[in-house]
Amino acid sequence: MTDVTDSAWLVEETGFGPEGFDRARANYHETIFTVGNGRLGTRGSLEEGHLGQLSGTFLGGVYDGHEVPVIDLVNVPDWLDTAVYVDGVRLDVDTCTVVEHRRVLDLRDGVLTRSTLFEDADGRRTRLETERCASMADRRICALRLTVTPENHDGQIVVETGIDGDRRNLEALPVYPAGTVFDVRTRWEKWALAKHMEQTARSAADTLYLQMRTLDTGVELGFLASTTFATPPVHRAAQQRSERVTERTVHGGAPVRMEKLVAICTSRDPDASGPLPDRCRSALAEQEGFGSAGFDGAGFGSAGFDGAGFDGAGFDGVVAASRAVWEQLWDACACEVVGDERFTRALRFGLYHLLITANPDDPTVNIGAKSLSGEGYRGHVFWDTEIFMLPFFILTQPDTARALLRYRHHTLDGARANSREYGTGGARYAWESADTGREECPQFTPDGANRFWTREEEVHVSADVAYGIFRYVEATGDTAFLHDYGAEVLFETSRFWVDRVAASPAGGYELRQVMGPDEFHSHIDNNAFTNRLAQWHLTRTVALYDELRDRHPDVLAAVATTIGLKPDERDRWQAVAEGIVGPRTVAGVIEQFTGYFDRDDIPITEWDDNDMPRYPKGYHHFNCETTKLLKQPDVVMLNYLLPDEFSAEVKKANFEYYEKRTLHKSSLSPSIHAIIGMEVGDTTRAVQYFERSVLVDLADNQGNTAEGMHIASAGGTWQILVNGFGGLRVLGGRLSFTPWLPGDWQGIRFRLRWRGRPVHVSVDHGHVELLLGGDAGGTEGVLVGGREVTLTAGEPVRVAR
Ligand code: BGC
């Protein structure tokens, strides 16, 4: 059971009495209590389900588009699938009264613990306790432990547990009058549902095996479950029906204690070889002999394995191995607002969700906009990865950052095909990417009423990918990545830009018909963000080309052969980089796009309970085109991404101008305003934006956490800690810290990894303390408040602020 002594690591749900289970917030809890391991995520639904549940397990990279207009991240078989009966009465929140209900997610090891006391109509009280986790040590393994304890009766206990493959994805909500409110018990039933899997194999003997195949993409998914009981059941029957396998055990005494271990293997796993059932079996067998410790071999699990003696550590063993990996993960990214438990927990909560959604071992997957915690955005990958989440991984978990960037290389063919479709060459990354890299962005809102232009016009994503690659290499020194994968991506995407630009009548090049990060304005020309990032991308790529030509001609030759690069292409990249038109600037304010300054200035006059702007009366997402209102930062974002290219005065002028006009209708938005707000001295607003960002999911302040985590916001929040309060910028290739702390904070602490060495940072009101780790003798020159400081490995340095 979870050690509850350090509540800054614990996220809790507690309820007593008739409302012990808060049904209205159940879907929210399902999201925040997602357990996962980077390869898969399982929402925090009750094991036995409830009316109105939105349950799901999602495996990175498993998509399917069968008979749906937009490809989905598949809601794969449910490995929890467990129900308990007491004298024939099902223990669930729909049948029984909930006397007490408590769940705790321990962020340290990703174990979700539950204790629910049910009372049935005859007054029988039974406590149901569970613990579950997805192993970080072996990403194929999930584990559940269940204990059933009668409190005032000796009724007969029956447990049913199995694998349920009869799953659907939400497809579309039919059009109902605006403002229609659905009962929480039935709200998801109104949706059209999409079926993405069919059963290909099933067996229910001593172990339970279910194999499903995705209908269009043909991915085989194998789920093998093995259970053990502390005391042997008096009766056991395996049950099979279409797309579901279960076992039913009848118990002669109480308490009943079950451990269930599930191995999940798929035909798309990077190292896949051999029949899936065999792979699942060996995955279970590798769990140090699951099946019995303390259980006296009472389980059924081992029989299917020819009595091979799975007498190992069971559930506790899985958790112990997983915890050891978690310890390493946390060691690399430990962070804290000293003395403030609420913010510390919220920061760690965001990092927990980042850690359970990124897989360093699979370079063919990436992170969807709602992570693996829900179906929102159908699991599609956006610029959110490179701009919002990647900085966290680059600076704390560089192997994961590398894998995330390798996904862009893996999907390069898809990006090439996207570019061809739009009449350009090279590679153009999809605004919404899934398994192949082809563009998956829908053109209309689900009700068909409004057209989105992001698919066609939000082309900045290709420059964002380039940005991520260069930042990764700068922080890690991983030139091998650049040579093996990065250069090809950068050259191909540079080819896209030179075809995408148009000659300007005034000379130079323009980028017309685009949309910047601010999605209120479509069909615009010369978006300051897009033009500048495309230019930066081309300039850096030319420099890379020259470096390879001069120092690694063999690497250049290999890439050139692969992509048929011609000698004059480099000069064309340079010509376009030098010729891209710059934005109009008035009194330091950079015009967001050509003609922006002429649009209607509609004041923002109302703020919501979170102190965030409301749409001015009469305005909504689809009619802000003619105004200066912004959905999210665009120029301010640019100021942040290229810190050494804009003066302090320019940053201040742009923040002051655009902040008044930004509605923050994306959860990505507040983090950027928090960071730049601190830099330019608007610390009051900055702290408000921090609170909005750090609590976005825990406080559900967007109102839609039920559909999945705002995972980019978690990455943005980490950047507020490190780049905002910590004041970190990389200037001229060096770490530079100019911290700022709110008066009522004692301090902050965080850890980074820079060029292979850990850097521990601690800030209070008087000092910055830095400790460089790694091999003795290593040094690193950094800036603190603009002053040069040399760090030597193992020697803490304390600098007055
Ligand atoms: C934002 C985009 C973001 C997407 C997915 C949209 O609302 O405007 O910037 O990429 O959500 O998170």
Automatic annotation (TrEMBL):
Belongs to the glycosyl hydrolase 65 family. Keywords: Glycosidase, Glycosyltransferase, Hydrolase, Transferase. Residues 728-791 form the Glycoside hydrolase family 65 C-terminal domain. GO terms for molecular function: hydrolase activity. This is Glycosyl hydrolase family 65 protein. It comes from the Bacteria. PANTHER family: GLYCOSYL HYDROLASE-RELATED (PTHR11051), PROTEIN-GLUCOSYLGALACTOSYLHYDROXYLYSINE GLUCOSIDASE (PTHR11051:SF8). Residues 19-268 form the Glycoside hydrolase family 65 N-terminal domain. Pfam families: Glyco_hydro_65C (PF03633), Glyco_hydro_65m (PF03632), Glyco_hydro_65N (PF03636). Residues 348-719 form the Glycoside hydrolase family 65 central catalytic domain.
